[in-house]
Amino acid sequence: MTEYIRAKVKISQQQPYASKVFASEIMHGAPHLPPEIAEQMLQQTRQSSARIQDWIDRGLMAPVDPQHLLFTIWASTQTYADFDWQITRVTGKDQLEEEDYQAAADLICQLVLKGCEVKSP
Fold this sequence. Notes:
By secondary structure, this protein is mainly alpha-helical. The chain has helices at residues 2-14, 16-27, 35-57, 66-82, 84-91, 98-115. It has one domain: Tetracycline Repressor, domain 2, CATH 1.10.357. The chain contains six helices and no strands. 14% of the residues are buried. The mean pLDDT is 95.
């Protein structure tokens, strides 16, 4: 889960414009999203949800809705690409730095892992 969250933050950091375009496309009902990309996204989400459900079934984490957990992770990580203007204004920075993304990933991991009561296998 930690690797997944850190990867999602890294995408927001390294590909902010692609992330913004994708988010805008989704917010507008995905009228230009190719069917194969939509299908790939659906399959990846199903695989991730199944993995989370397996961890729940094995007692490695609290019983949460896997899909809603993914939505929460997506929203919290996507924020650093889509709302960078707001974040820089609030923090008083001209731009976000590596340490900012690391701090974001650390906090999101802490919230998700503790909130879902994730245990080591």
